[in-house]
Amino acid sequence: MPAPTLTDFVLAHTTPAPVPLVPEIVLHSAVEAMDLWELTDHDQPPFWAFPWAGGQALARHLLDRPALVRGKKVFDLASGSGLVAIAAALAGADSVTANDIDPLSLAAVELNAAGNGVAVTTLPGDRLDGDAHGADVVLAGDVFYDARITALVLPFLTRAAARGALVLLGDPDRAHLPRDRFVRQARYEVPVPLTLESTETRSATVWRA
To answer: Is the pTM for the entire model greater than 0.85?
Structure first.
């Protein structure tokens, strides 16, 4: 019998379900975060297994305003489940690249993109020393969750904006978001998993660099 693949792992521990704020998109999602985290044996939670609040807000924003990405080259940083990347593809982006350092994330992105009938290119590894491969639009959901990650991500986003890319973020009021560096675009009330957020709804804002 062949060894289980990363795709097999995602399929075994998730169930396809509509995203609460973006029901047009169906993601392979898990029910219990801590149990799945133990199975992955990773330092970070399984970000790929849940529709986080910032990503939901940003995905909703793109589907409601498709002109932001239509016909453009899009780069989705720390893609997780691929929710934002899939929304960009559904909104008419010319090409979408989903980047994440977690191989399980990229397996989930591929499954989720196929399940939603869109093409998304996955890009592994840490790409924060670049400027998003020349993308016209750079997207990031839920990236400011601790000080160390913020210090790494902010220069990347700043470089992309400086060369003229449209940089959009989705964030549920995390403490490390540098609000003085961004302009608020829209705000959403987002249904979230109670086991992850200790609440059933979180406010999330879409910001532009």
So the answer is: yes
